[in-house]
Amino acid sequence: MYDTSGSHSVCYAATPDHDINGRLNWLRAEIARAESRARPRRAREETRALSIIHPLTTEESYAWFGTFLGLFPPCAIFARILAPAFSEGASRQFPSAGAMLFWTLLLLTMNAVCCLVGRKFGAFLGRKLDDPRRWSWPVFVFSTLMLAVAWGVVTGAAGGAVGFIIGAVVGVVCAVPVALAAFPVFAVLHRLLSHGGMIEEHDLWPLAFGVPLAAAALILSPALLK
Fold first, then answer.
1. Nearest CA-CA partner of 150 in 69, 219, 209
2. Where is average pLDDT lowest: 13-17, 36-40, 92-96?
3. Which has the least CB within 10 A, 30, 60, 133, 170?
4. Separation CA 42–CA 90 (nearest Å)
5. Is there a single domain that holds both residue 93 and residue 27?
6. Model confidence pLDDT, tens digit, residues 156-200
7. Do residue 25 and residue 102 come from a single domain?
8. What is the phi/psi pair of residue 14, to 5°?
């Protein structure tokens, strides 16, 4: 719009105040409607969160999950590696008891590093995730896959690096598939049972302990070699 009323000798743009006010009023109305729709849901979440007797935050939950995921599946993988040492023909792979002891201690050290790093990085990811219910389901599922890859790369590389540095590559290759299988399962179940970013302690232990243990059982399954 241009003002050519004659009060000025040149045309100049007129400020469309009525358009701006109309848009601001529409935006305020939309924000008010969105808040009114979300308020009952937030109230229910807050009530359920306050009713939890022994609450654990998302950070604590993922810390425990990362601990057990860094403990059980790597232990199962290492058990498969050491199993031939206790079968017939072990002398071909471990020519002496000293060699077998060395590799056993090395693998135990790698397992301990995976457990420690898995706990620390799991807590970091849980802190970033915060309340899982604030994300939509598609975004949440996609995010858990990204978290799984990040956890697998960091934890696998740290644990594998103990094995003469080059083991970091092998560690990542082994850890990422396990994390991709376990993380979404734990994350979805944790979201369903948590409220306001809090979960009851007795609800967490079957998830944090059971999901990694199930992954370890699958690794040890004879069907995996077929």
1. 69
2. 13-17
3. 30
4. 61
5. no
6. 999 999 877 778 899 999 999 999 999 999 999 999 998 888 899
7. no
8. -90, 135
Q: Is residue 6 in a domain?
A: yes
Q: Tell me if 126 is assigned to some domain.
A: yes
Based on the domain organization, do 96 and 199 belong to the same domain?
A: yes
| Region at 221 (left for phi over 0; alpha for psi -120 to 50; beta for the rest) | beta
**Helix 167-193 and helix 137-161: axis angle, to 10°?**
150
pLDDT value at position 20?
A: 75
φ, ψ at 55 (rounded to 5°): -80, 145
The label of the residue with tokens 């990362």 reads: 66
3-state secondary structure (DSSP) of residue 100: helix
Q: Is 71 exposed, middle or buried (0-12, 13-18, 19+ CB in 10 A)?
A: buried
In a domain, 50, yes or no: no
* Residue 12 and residue 91 in one domain: no
pTM for the full predicted model? 0.76
Alpha-carbon distance of 136 to 45, in angstroms, equals: 16
Do 62 and 123 touch, CB atoms closer than 8 A? yes
Q: Does 126 or 39 have the greater pLDDT score? A: 126
| Residue 141 and residue 66 in one domain | yes
Report the residue count for the chain.
Answer: 226
Residues 124 and 216 in one domain: yes
Position 48 in a domain:
no
Gap between the Cα atoms of 117 and 155, Å rounded: 6
The CB density around residue 26, as the number of other CB atoms within 10 Å, is: 10
| Residue of 89 and 73 predicted with greater confidence | 73
